[in-house]
Amino acid sequence: MDEHLRERWLLVWEKNKKRFFLYTLLVLAVAGILTGLSIFRNEMDKKAWAKFNLATTYFQQAQSSEDDKGRLAKYQKAKSLYEEVLSRYPWTKVRKEALFYLGNCLYCLGEYKQAGQILQKFCRRYEDDYFFPWAEIKLAFAYEQQGQYEEAIKTYEELLKKYPDNVLAPQALLGMARCLELQGKWNEALSKYEELVSRYPLSSEAALGEVQIQRLKGERKVIMSEG
Question: Cα(37)–Cα(214) distance, rounded to whole angstroms?
Fold first, then answer.
């Protein structure tokens, strides 16, 4: 019985050994390619992180710089490096952070339209990310700087609804009031300033809100007396 099975196994082996070797070579080749890709991606990721860290160093130096020319130069260097990370290393693990900091960098350089585009992209892709509230409020600032007050108000409002207890919530409410005032909607702006003081009384933004409330009420009195 055992001899019969052995003969059958040898027969099957003779018929299929070429196929077996081919399959083995194929598996080894695929494994080799995957290993090579993994090594390549790890190396690219290391390079991406190195450039990202250098860019962030320039970004932080720019924020603490008191020299206008030096600050702008450092922001430009940071911007170029963040853009290089995003263009040369599309699969890097640091892509999310590079996108966020690039948006902030562009904003600091006064390139508000480009900053808005980058921050919009970040907000679409990473809605549940830790950095999302900071990206969204900076997006609102970018809209405001371009005079797109309705878009800014909408973005501030979305942030306030989603993160009412976030440290940025008072800023969002202050931003809404400011945009309404810039549109000439005095009563609505006054209402938002009052809401800011009522909801976040201990915030530094509430102190600004108090000043704006007194100013708007004073201006309204002057207008009414002149009328």
Answer: 64
pLDDT per residue as tens digits for the range 35-50: 544 554 567 788 999 9
3-state SS of the chain: helix, strand, coil percent to 5? 85, 0, 15
DSSP states of 191-206: HHHHHHHHH-TTSHHH
Taking residues 43-60, what's their average pLDDT? 91
Residue with tokens 């170029």: 80
Contacts of 15 (CB under 8 A, 6+ apart): none
Nearest to 143 by CA among 123, 128, 167, 170: 123
Q: Which position has the token pair 């700087």?
A: 145
- Closest Cα to residue 124, out of 106, 140, 136? 136
Q: How distant, in Å, are the alpha carbons of 30, 40, 89, 186 from that of 144?
A: 53, 43, 32, 17
Outline where 65-185 has alpha helix (H). Answer: 68-88, 95-108, 112-125, 132-145, 149-162, 169-182
In angstroms, the Cα distances linking 208 to 36, 174, 177 are: 58, 8, 11
Beta carbons of 41 and 71 less than 8 angstroms apart: no
